[in-house]
């Protein structure tokens, strides 16, 4: 890709519109809002989304803007628990299903439909997704057979045991590209390379929009940890290949799911600017392991180390492609998934046309 793909504010704005406001975007785990009345102010490509656990236990999503004059109902990044949705500006009150309950000093009450505007949402294996456009293909179609691939890990039953957010000074696509190849592993990740083979893996033949592949653990390692030791437990439904593999999956545009024999690690990308990406990393363990008192520190320290090495590499690439004069080189055979990602991206860019007009979804 030319440098502008990673540095241009105009390209970034186009991608926000084309990918992040028109595709299913993951907003994290559904159990983050567990109790009725819990409400979170979230952000999707600059648009505010309000997620609410209603009185029946259903998770609802709305535009995070009051129908009076647009004040946010819950501040971005904040979580509250209330029996109603309440606007702090002029105190309009909405029920948890988004319907307007009270507008102070309106007598009679306003007769227009002033319920909160819903945002299309869907859940998949414990994650919440929204589609701001309302026009994306069904989430199940986008997920395709990733659902079956991840089924043995039963992600919907897992518990988040650790989270870590990173502010990465690199374009979001550099984070994705870095994730899609292990060509960099021998030189960038000495710890990872001691426990996992860095070649000889295979890519999945995916249906749906996802991309992924797997690599084998080294014989001396039980899992992805600094010393290769693990909890002496594996997900019960894994086949004999999976118990010796680390599997990497990208669900575009920004959810990375890494599956090891005993835990999952996810990275949720939030593009902030052409050269800035927030990455939210979560470690997911089986309830059985958590209840047995297993310390997730082995996985947390391992992936935190690996994350920092990856972000340093991505930030270095961002600096390298900035400032003019960069010319991209050839991809190595091990970078086949990266090639697929870039080819799809190029197709989407081409669909934008020379004037930046976009004729519609490109898949
Ligand atoms: S903007 Fe919410 S009550 Fe006025
Ligand atoms: Fe890496």
From TrEMBL:
One of its GO terms (molecular function) is 2 iron, 2 sulfur cluster binding. Residues 24-128 form the Rieske domain. Keywords: 2Fe-2S, Iron, Iron-sulfur, Metal-binding, Oxidoreductase. The keyword GTP-binding does not apply. The keyword Metal-binding applies. Signal peptide: none annotated. This is Rieske domain-containing protein. Its cofactor is Fe cation.
